[in-house]
C-alpha cells in the first residue's frame, strides 16, 4: 500500500472516472476548436493543475488541434484550507498571449476568486479568446460567479485531496480524489 492509505477516509472520484472524464473533456474542447489557426495555448495553473494538464494535453493530442503549453503559478490558499482571496503571482507566463486562443487548465474551482482574478488578467493581455476547463467544481462554494465552459465533476463542499489537490502541500500524488480523515487536520 501507499503511505497515504491510512489518511484517506473515502474516495469520491476514482482514477477510472478521472481518466474517462479527461478524455471526454478533451474531445469536447477539440471539437469546439478544430480549426483554430495557431492551435490552442493551454495555460496550467500550478501547482494543483499539474496532473490534469499532463493528462489533458495528451488526450487533446489524440484527436485535437496542436497545443502549446504554458504555466502560471498563483496562490490564494497558502497553507490553509480556505481561500484568502489574496492572489499572488509566483510565476508568470513565458510568452506573449496576444491574439492566441487560450484555455486555462484548472484542477478545481472553489470560491472562484482565483479564476475571476486570472480571467481579468489574461483578458488584459489581449488574448483572442480565453476559456476555462476545470476538472472539479464545488458549486456550493462559489463566491464569485466565473464562466467555466468545461467542467468535469461537480463535487460537494468538503475538503478533498488528490490528483493535484493538496492539504498543506501534501497528497498531490494521490491518483484519485478523496476525503481526508478528520484526525489528519487535527494533527497539523
Ligand atoms: C487551489 C486550486 C485552485 C484554487 C481554487 O489552488 O488548485 O487553483 O485553489 O480556489 P478558489 O476557487 O477558491 O480560488 P491553491 O491556491 O491552493 O494553490 P495550489 O494549486 O498550488 O495548491
Ligand atoms: Mn491551484
Ligand atoms: Mg492548494
Question: What do you see in this structure?
Answer:
The chain has helices at about 15-30, 50-65, 115-125, 180-185; strands at about 10-15, 40-45, 65-75, 90, 100-110, 130-135, 150-155, 160, 175-180. It has about 190 residues and is an alpha/beta fold. It has a single domain, classed as Rossmann fold, CATH 3.40.50.2020. A six-stranded mixed sheet has the order 4-3-2-5-6-7, sandwiched between helices. Strands 1-9-8 form a three-stranded antiparallel sheet. Helix 3 (about 115-125) links the parallel strand 5 and strand 6. Helix 1 crosses helix 2. The longest helix is centred in the N-terminal third of the chain and has 18 residues, at about 15-30. It starts with 7 loop residues before the first strand and ends with a helix. The model has no long low-confidence stretch (mean pLDDT about 95). It binds 1-O-pyrophosphono-5-O-phosphono-alpha-D-ribofuranose, manganese (II) ion (MN) and magnesium ion (MG). Magnesium ion (MG) binds next to loops. Magnesium ion binds next to loops.
Amino acid at each position: 500500500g501507499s503511505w497515504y492509505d491510512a489518511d484517506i477516509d473515502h474516495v469520491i472520484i476514482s482514477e477510472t472516472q478521472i481518466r474517462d472524464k479527461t478524455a471526454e473533456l478533451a474531445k469536447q474542447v477539440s471539437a469546439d476548436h478544430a480549426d483554430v489557426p495557431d492551435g490552442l495555448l493551454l495555460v496550467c495553473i500550478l501547482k494543483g493543475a499539474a496532473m490534469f494538464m499532463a493528462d489533458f494535453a495528451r488526450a487533446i493530442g489524440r484527436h485535437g488541434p496542436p497545443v502549446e503549453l504554458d504555466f502560471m503559478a498563483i496562490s490564494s490558499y497558502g497553507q490553509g484550507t480556505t481561500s484568502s482571496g489574496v492572489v499572488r503571482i509566483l510565476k508568470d507566463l513565458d510568452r506573449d498571449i496576444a491574439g492566441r486562443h487560450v484555455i486555462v487548465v484548472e484542477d478545481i474551482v472553489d470560491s472562484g476568486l482565483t479564476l475571476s482574478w486570472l480571467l481579468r488578467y489574461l483578458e488584459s493581455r489581449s488574448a483572442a479568446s480565453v476559456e476555462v476547463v476545470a476538472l472539479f467544481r464545488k458549486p456550493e462554494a462559489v463566491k464569485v460567479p466565473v464562466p467555466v465552459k468545461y467542467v468535469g465533476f461537480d463535487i460537494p463542499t468538503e475538503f478533498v485531496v488528490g490528483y493535484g489537490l493538496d492539504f498543506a502541500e501534501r497528497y498531490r500524488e494521490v491518483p484519485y480524489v478523496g476525503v481526508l480523515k478528520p484526525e489528519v487536520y487535527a494533527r497539523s
